[in-house]
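Quarterly update from the structural biology core.
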Amino acid sequence: MTPGRDRQRALVYAWEDRIVAPRDKSAIAYAAAKAMVGAIWADLGLRFPPRVEPLPAQARRLQADASRLLVRLPPSLPSWLLLHEMAHALSSTHDGASDGHGPAFMGLYIQLLGRYLRWVREELLHSARADGIEVWPDARPAFLDPFPASTAARNPPYSRSMHDDPSRTAPLDPL
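Predicted structure, tokenized:
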């Protein structure tokens, strides 16, 4: 987990403005986005999705926000922003530990963009790294237990996890 300052935040936002947002002009209504959070969670083979609530009207600086337990969304948002918030939910734990916009978040985010918007992951990965963003392409959700060593040996490639020894984890199969 990224301690203290979210050092990649500005880089990630600039990358999204340059690479991600121009490619997705969609607008998802809140009700549809709320249903999509549960559907994506289930599609990934996960249980107990985060609660979805409207973003408070007084939230002026936020487009949306998310943690493992709560996703707050505006009345309408683009698909990429929903996936951005889903990556936050996947890269944080129930007790508030979070990767911020760190390498695990970016790995999960790129996996989601590739899976649900059908964008080429390698291109996204290359462009993010070219912008100086650290990415763990095989990141797993922060709240999943690591695979036992015997399971990891049967399921390479091994990946980095925010809280485990990289040699003991493997990417989430559905992604």
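The two ends are 21 Å apart (CA to CA).
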